[in-house]
Protein 1
Amino acid sequence: MGYLFICIYIGIILIVVEICTALFVLTGLEKPIARFQVVSMLTSTGFTTGESELIIAHPIRRRLGAFLIMFGAFSLAVIISAISGILQKNFHITELGVTAGVLVLLLVILKLPFLQKRLSSILQEELEENYKLEDLPIKDVLLQNDDDYFVEIHVHEASDLVGNTLEETIKPEEDINILFIKRGDVAIRHDRQKEKIQAGDQLVLYGDKSLLQKKFEAEIKEHEEKIEENPEAKNK
């Protein structure tokens, strides 16, 4: 019976992983990233990646994360207790089975398309009503459509942008917004369109994805090649 208890409880943990993954997906997170972060928080492994910022920066995801951390700590205690009492006969298999059944039912309900759409709408409404714009991650604020794109363009020494202004490079009718120019530790916002670009500048832009990738193809390609040669350059 003790082994059965442990197997059922592990099943409950796996169901909780799937439920929380589904909830994270409803907040706009991609499924592979959601599942990885759920497992990381549940096991308290402390595995950190840039993707973890997607959890920390989002108010609803932070709540789910706090639940997972606490549930993970509780589950570890339960499993250790079950193993230590493996020779005892008094295991509440019936109650545990009912709990597992309820969780399976909840997971099935969460998989229903119409309910997913409704829950996603409710979560979005809660964000709009209870949280300020600056509390939300960039993805939820700027990337509303598939064509929306947010990018940092790294200007290398041989770039055609050097010595020119963004006013000369980006036409008024083009769907590109200049957020600011990062030069060292300084963010240039005032008259950024008229500022002459220097080698080493980073242009923080937002607009149509295909247009941005086409117009700044040389700079993007140069930076990608630099990263391949030296992965540490990714964060520079």
Protein 2
Amino acid sequence: MAKIRREEVIDAGLELLNETGLEALTMRKLALRLNVEAASLYWHFKDKTALLNAMASAIVLRHHRMPVAGDPTDWARWYTENFRSFRAALLTHRDGAKLHAATAPSASEFEQILPKIDLLVAAGFDDDAARMALLAGGQFTMGSVLEEQAQGARAASAEADPGEMTNSFDFGLSLLVAGLRSHLIDKLKQTQAFPQRY
């Protein structure tokens, strides 16, 4: 039985995802792609769910490397660029958003989230609001990319505006930022600590 590395399985899975889409991706097809017995895959992943989790995590860790802003007052620009980066990562693979929505974040992904929460808390949000701000941004981004990838054929046609999806995404993101800024201003006013920079 041929021996394969865990990363080889993930890479082949992502290649197969691009070719077949998430619905048609099976462990049997993946084993055939790698020219191994299916048992070789289960040595690294206990089931298909575990493999899909690893594939989704790989997409994020490889393509979504937005550093946390050093200045908390720059939170709005960072928030915008962070979710633009997340969108770009999901778009690197066919059904990227569908894959991500169907899986659980890895420990490595959770480690990336904590400094982001800390940044928003340093900017003035309380811990719960910081978490909800990131969750809302993530859900909005995944929903936008799900729609974009579902309409891939239409978006590729000659009649489609290639920038339409990007423009609508940026507009929605700007509304999220505006709402968060308003929430923050209200909170700071209540504490009588409203600085002019906001």
Protein 3
Amino acid sequence: MAKGFGRPVLNTHNEHEAQILKKSVLNHFEHLEDPRVGSRIDHNLVGIVTIAILAVIAGADGFVAIETYGKAKLQWLETFLDLPHGIPSHDTFGRVFGLLDPQQLEASFLSWVGSITESLNIELIHIDGKTAKGSYDRNNDLKALHSVSAWSSEYGLVLAQQKVESKSNEITAVPLLLKLLNLKGAVVTLDAMGTQTNIARQIKEAGGDYVLALKGNQGKLSQQVEQWFAMAEDQNWQGIELSYHQTVEAGHHRLETRQVWAVPVSQLPPLHRQTQWQGLTSVVMVKRRRQLWNKTTTQTQFYLSALEPDGQQHNQVIRSHWGVENGLHWVLDVTFNEDASRVRQGYAAENLGLLRRLSVNLLKREPSRQSLKMKRYRAGMDNDFLIKILAASAAK
């Protein structure tokens, strides 16, 4: 029988750190099953997982860096962790995370996120995919890890993650991800890959609403919507009921204008397979015009929506979805070097990706006004600040 996370979890030489760790995010990882078999296991799973989480928060981007962090902090770690054989090698960290069931790690992650979000009113959930470009292995015909994440723009939280299987795509991963989430009362946004009738139905049946990007992958439906909006513009919107909203923002030598037209679906002629889009209420057009010092660019996008035709609300929802690039993907690549990571042993890339997303959540919940990069740098040097980050994760 596989060994569990293990008891005793913590030493009591440093009661302050021990109590915070018991109450923090780490408490939700104590039921993980040890995937290793054999009579000799020098390093218990609690030590391996705890050190890895602390190291990633504090700036480690791979297993060599995790080992280096552990050795540098050994004296401190021993005050609250049972480490009879010292710090595991990077090979041990890599092997354990390569074997560790990612669904169990995900369940622990979701348990902690749930303990936070139960006191929050999550109104917007953005679903978007990301590829860890460095995780491919050409020699072994291993494709780069692609995962789909659920992101709360209101609170800067990763709500869940789902791996996209190598021979599949986001269409199969999104329904699995949605099953992990509480969608009741929330608005879910997806890019064009997730604009599918079954996904719209799943969101509505779970008590949520949707705003789905409409592009060429929807063929006839996309053409119908584009042609209708072009005709309506040519006729200056005469006789058409709609909600219009415009914003103009200037900054960083850039002027950006956003125009949103939200139209009740009843104003359009019958759309292709319209009855199969459960809850479809509005069709939306968004125009973005960006003026830089040397050029001007324009972009037009269309959306299917289960929300009432309110231009201002749709502007807020759609703009929030664009923020996932800066709020999550850019952070993972620039602050956590995810694109450069060459980890690819077993489940290791997927599990390390989850630890990065866990760290994003922890760092964003720490209230000081510092960049995430600076928080990681400070956490690597200042043990008290790292404990403060964990303490924030335990606060309701």
